[in-house]
Amino acid sequence: MRRAGWICGALVFTAGCRVSTPYVPPPAPAPAAKTPADAYKELNGWKTAQPAEGTLRGKWWELFGDPQLNRLEERVDVSNQDLKAAEARFREARALVRIERSAEFPVVSISPGIGNLRDSAKAPYAPANPEPAGDFALPLDVSWEADIWGRIRQRVAATREEAQAEAADLESVRLILHAELAVDYFELRSADAQKRLLDETVESYREALQLTTHRFEEGAAPKSDVSQAKTQLDSAQVADTDIAVARAEFEHAIAVLTGAPPSAFAIAEIPPALAVPNVPVGVPSQMLERRPDIAAAERRVAEANEEIGIARAAFYPTVSLSAVLGMEGHSIASWLTWPARFWAVGPSMAETVFDAGRRRAASESALASYDAAVAAYRQTVLAAFQQVEDNLAVLRVLEQEARQQQEATAAAHESLELVTNRYREGADPYLQVLTAQTIALANERNDLDILRRRMDSSVLLVKALGGGWTAALLPKTADLR
């Protein structure tokens, strides 16, 4: 027993060895800038909120100042099924940490058994008349692998880092769903605005039809003017009716995002009051800490680094300590007595001598997986900066385009009014009125469409910036037990 104790102590002492490489986060291809203007070229010529004006928070959708949007966004966290699935995957990853941690401790098993045994009289060297004998056993088995090379600890570390990556994936799903809901909501409100415009246009065209009919009845205009006015009115009514298709699709999409069946969900048609918010951009170094997909990719690089150490540990012997003790007797009376005790204890070592290059190939595979994880991380960073630049460009250009479109819309209305008055006085043919009506309606619809695109791009810019999330919210490795 004393000798076994020395052996156990030596194993515990050597269990601090590791063959892994210390993890250093790979450098990210991010611009080293102190202000957004130094890093984002698409900020040039466009005024956005500065870092001093605040940063994005968790409920970033409140930037848009729409109470109904706020209520719908709150329902996503409670009822969305994709989010529930992502949360379940995170809980599964946490459970895998506990599974791997269990290997750090001894495995204790007990297997009591009671039997009545009789040897064969025909067996070699068997007695002439073997008698049945009882066998009462109460063995206790203990086994423990000494983690000399850190294989088990690296397994635990790898599963912890994967759990952190799953937590970041959960936040990525959350951000995507909230952004998708906001985009669908603004698309629906844009459809409402288009419907309102077309309703007003139909009434205006109906009045124009009455005017041409009155002039025809008085003999001041040909029958063709009435036909042209009727065609213009019918075309506007078709466009007005068609808007309902797009609105219904966006309403159904919002219902699913909020966890409700489309048949039991409705959003009232109200005049939209959309205003493009100022989105605080922040500096690039902040974005690396605020994008959950970047955090997930970085955690998987750390996990791949642990896998390299696990592959290297396979080149070293596995040392285990096992023990068995218990009581065994031929009857109940002698079963639990002191002479019935038995025990055995001792270490064992296993080393692979030849495996045809399997371990070397596994090590090379782990190194390749690490390189792939680093490349995926850097690509995620590059894609994130691309998304920010894209939406900054869209917002900058659309802001200028919106001013130009407003001037064009005002000019089209003025032209329509002048041409209508001249037709009423008989100075211009009705074709001029039709042309002016078509141009005015196209400009008004384009005005609304630009506003829709600006709202969508504002949401996508918030999404590209991480939506106010931060890597500090990831669960700490010490808490993943």
General description of the model:
The chain is α+β, with helices and mostly antiparallel strands and 481 residues long. The chain is 60% helix and 9% strand. It has eleven helices and five strands. It has helices at 2-14, 36-39, 67-79, 81-101, 151-217, 223-257, 284-290, 292-313, 332-335, 358-424, 430-464; strands at residues 107-110, 113-117, 133-146, 318-329, 341-350. The longest helix has 67 residues, at 151-217. The protein is elongated and about 135 Å long. The chain starts with a helix and ends in a 17-residue tail after the last helix.
Q: Provide the gyration radius in Å.
A: 38 Å
Mean pLDDT: 88
**Count of structural domains:** 2
The amount of beta strand, in percent, is 5-15%
Q: What is this structure, in a nutshell?
A:
With 481 residues, the protein is an alpha+beta fold. 60% of the residues lie in helices and 9% in strands.
Could you name the key traits of this structure?
single chain; 481 residues; alpha+beta; Outer membrane efflux proteins (OEP); 2 domains; five-stranded antiparallel β-sheet; 11 helices; 5 strands
Write the layout of secondary structure elements.
Elements: H1 2-14, H2 36-39, H3 67-79, H4 81-101, E1 107-110, E2 113-117, E3 133-146, H5 151-217, H6 223-257, H7 284-290, H8 292-313, E4 318-329, H9 332-335, E5 341-350, H10 358-424, H11 430-464
